């Protein structure tokens, strides 16, 4: 009958600082706060994130005979999983932190609880479905039949990665530095239109990879202030150009097609043989709409509304196939995590798959891991010569390990993720060309 509260601010600060120290020293494997639903919910939610493990705990150590009070109390607390309990215990005792060693991770998919009244065994997988069902019922009102597919597949599409053996995660490996100030002479231009929002993270990824980055707004091209003559990599970034009121990137495409100076600059750029281009998300939709990936003789694909008819925002995995994309060919064979955020990301191809060069695909064909229902599970498409790449996932938002929703625990010293290699490949190609 008493609302959970924090009455000792200094003690709370002490706990927070102690946990931060453990995190910095890489002594915490996983953690979760105790809040809504109490300790029992916290323990279950910690196990939901994996597919193989369970937990054995002993709540008699609390010195309280009422299991309900222990398991369902919502008093503020934290549950942490550690590899070296002795060191953690030493720190807590030194800092005056109250704690209980609950138990150990187990190899069976159960939450086994020893209590004063009775021993309890809970099946994690069945409870995970119950936990997810509320989201499913809400999703059903928005997505109809696809809500059931999400409910059936959410635990069948795990994040499994495969990195190249040569990948070290080191900036030095690529000859890169966050402190670079000198110009490289290799120029990339980010093209922006009203409503674009992906320019800053893209600019930094390009800068880190060794490009000198120019910010070019469509008005610069329309009014002739920019001609792209000194640019070797043209990047159309993500966002919602013109608020997508005409459809994704349709208004942006019109700005190129119906403004003579902008159209001339674009045409001259693609006539050169020393240029590359990249379109991400809204930029991908633009490149497809303008036919910049396919030749005039080919029937170009279309970008359609997601099958869910919803804006989809997820962290998922893509498989990078054998390909001749300048940016992606060295990543062939990798399976990497990446973000998607779009409402019209469905690739629709008028011809068979062999007519197109698809360098990366969503790792699972079923929804929601194929978030839009793209044919052939396509996540991107490349020009026949490998120089021009359009993709819906945001590689610029996954360049650093901390960008990822989940990154391999065994690679906690990585400075960059494998996606940086795509940008480095582009720079090296231009340097060799010039």
Tell me about this structure.
The strands form five sheets. Strands 8-7-9-10-17-16 form a six-stranded mixed beta sheet. The chain has helices spanning 9-24, 38-48, 67-72, 85-95, 124-143, 145-153, 199-208, 218-222, 250-257, 260-271, 282-290, 420-433, and strands at 28-34, 54-58, 77-82, 103-106, 110-114, 120-123, 187-192, 212-217, 233-236, 276-280, 302-304, 312-320, 335-342, 346-348, 360-362, 380-382, 388-391. The chain is elongated and about 80 Å long. The chain starts with 8 loop residues before the first helix and ends with a helix. Helices cover 30% and strands 20% of the residues. The longest helix has 20 residues, at 124-143. The relative contact order is 0.11. The model has no long low-confidence stretch (mean pLDDT 94). With 434 residues, the protein is of the alpha/beta class.
